[in-house]
């Protein structure tokens, strides 16, 4: 019943599928844009948080089935896998993510999200596709429909992946642990795209090699001996230890890591005490740690443990607790150089060389990287999402919103036109029938 509910959308799948004819992806996307925008707006208005994407997954599954894919749901939780077999050839994986963020939308769009949910603390928050996953889903629905109606133009197997919980860094791991590459064909290569809030529509950004960072969440508890704030000599103050640690952590990057090796340690949260005149027993810190290489990652995490212990030892405090939160860890994303060298010329051909630009590496994270760690050559590229005229105005005011902002939104028509053109053209090239 849930998956059939997707049929209530105003989109008619027959209209999307159309009649197979020799048309390039750009023309197909343009002629089907009205239906694609209907899909996008519906997904934007009905976001679901990580690990709760049941209705979203059902909608995607329905469209992929109608495109001719053999669909399996419930992979790694709410994940969806669609297999499109079309003769001999390589296996190409195309991936989208499903989840939204606990952000109350303030874009003012007529189709903005009004969804509200309860937080674990009982407060209410809005839910919003503030990271463009609604664009990603619509893009891959369009690509699936195009490939399904143009089977004379490619040969092989397309493996469509709709992944949950990207925002928590869990979805790829959950799907892999559920036998993704044992239950289904292991891909020979994999592509994904991600909207870019700083890149204009019509443009694609890419980078070979390391593109996104290792992401580690670290919890630190500095321990002491509580007591009266007027008698600090009778206590061991954990808040003072935490203050010393915050400063000491900065020397790990500045004095222990090579200046040409990217690394970040940020203390995002500190909590300790309950009252002005009470020294507490402990103080808690939450850190985000970013790097590219495994060697640097190890140095950073070891350094955090060493600094925390040294500060505690210096005041005779109990040993601190330092925990790397494995559930939130994401490995660095490495774009396979050979795959990038194969795909980048295709993107330049269909979009224009001036519209395919080099990306700077980012300290952000993306769990698409886990498929690469599992032995599949991967390539994720950036998709411009802000109309050039709007971007110029935003830059004049110095207020270009980032992803995850309550006021970020993509200019959907132009963004989808470029995204579908790029992804479908790359798929056709990678799955080109043998002459």
Describe the structure concisely for a colleague:
The protein has helices at 13-17, 25-31, 33-45, 54-66, 133-148, 171-177, 180-183, 238-256, 294-314, 337-351, 369-373, 388-397, 412-430, and strands at 70-75, 79-86, 91-97, 116-118, 124-126, 156-163, 189-200, 204-206, 209-212, 214-223, 227-228, 263-272, 278-279, 282-291, 321-324, 333-335, 356-358, 378-386. It is built from 13 helices and 18 strands.
Q: Could you characterize what this model shows?
A:
There is one protein chain. By secondary structure, the protein is α+β, with helices and mostly antiparallel strands. The chain contains 13 helices and 18 strands. The strands form five sheets. An eight-stranded mixed sheet has the order 1-2-6-3-7-18-8-17, sandwiched between helices. The N terminus is likely disordered.
Parts with pLDDT < 50 across at least 5 consecutive residues: 1-8, 10-15, 17-21
Largest sheet: 8 strands, mixed
Annotation, overall tally of beta strands: 18
Tally of separate helices: 13
Name the structural class.
Answer: alpha+beta
Portion of residues within helices: 25-40%
> What fraction of residues sit in β-strands?
15-25%
Mean pLDDT, all residues: 94
The separation of the N and C termini measures: 45 Å
Query: How big is the Rg?
Result: 24 Å
How is the largest sheet built, in terms of strand order? 1-2-6-3-7-18-8-17
Shape: elongated
Features:
alpha+beta, four-stranded antiparallel sheet, 435 residues, eight-stranded mixed sheet, elongated, disordered N terminus, 18 strands
